[in-house]
């Protein structure tokens, strides 16, 4: 049998992202919307499908969708770039600003992040052999120590600083004032990941013209029900957009996704009620978990400005397993992750889904206590 040459050493410690979803379960693990696309958008897709040109390549830069996004955000279209989900755009950012500088020996570029945070930042940094400067969040409330961040930016050669706002999986929001301090601390490219901004009501878009070193990352996967089609975009100054366009895959956003994205942009008001419902359900779910925590000294829940809640519980892994095996509910298990010991994250679902989860969680905690 023939042999194959070994791949880059950076891949040796990486595990492929599986994201496996168990069948036949209530899925509250991936921060998706509990609502499908509005009926009016689905009707337009159905009406136009017979004339859809599946045999033609898509517009490489999605000019029409780009312009719609630009108009919505009050910027010019050369400040927008679309991608095959936010994940691809994150990879593009690290391809352009991470890795090694060719011709400079042992010159690894550096990304700064605030842990616990979205796991893909580290995965892409490791993949591209980018040095990681990891600043821990406050373990009590998961806030960022802004003075420490500013000091690190001013005293280290940081190339990219990435901040998820609201934080994932913690749900905390950083103020505009603190974000401005971080952005102004150096010339590092600061990526403000606003994947959940529709649920928080806060965005840095009004600062886009002021800060040429800021990138805002967004997605259609959460508030706009397009997790299955993979569509995201970035907002940045034209020079940054040009650099990202140089490293992106050609035709990365397929024609069907672009078309659906255009219909969504034409129908944004139809998503308002769903977003409002998710925010209201988030607060009801938080109160239910807080009430549960008040009766259980081993449990704590943190407030969130996203569409999920993080909570800590004794025997968290056992509770997660019981939710899955007995109640057919699948949530995200962070119980063994650094900085998140005994923590679980649940996506805010519909009212009926949330009530089912609360009932199942209460039973699972009682069962765990009885087994002691």
Overall mean confidence score, pLDDT: 94
Treating each run of at least 4 consecutive H or I residues as one helix, how many helices? 12
Percent of residues in β-strands: 15-25%
H/E element string? EHHEHEHEHEHEHEEHHHEEHEEH
Give the strand order of the largest sheet, numbering strands 1, 2, ... along the chain: 2-8-7-6-5-3-4
Helix content: 25-40%
Task: Give the strand tally.
Answer: 12
Radius of gyration: 21 Å
Could you give a short account of the major beta sheet? 7 strands, mixed
Q: Given the helix and strand composition, which structural class is it?
A: alpha/beta
Distance between the ends = 55 Å
Which regions are unreliable across 5 or more consecutive residues at pLDDT < 50? none
Shape: globular
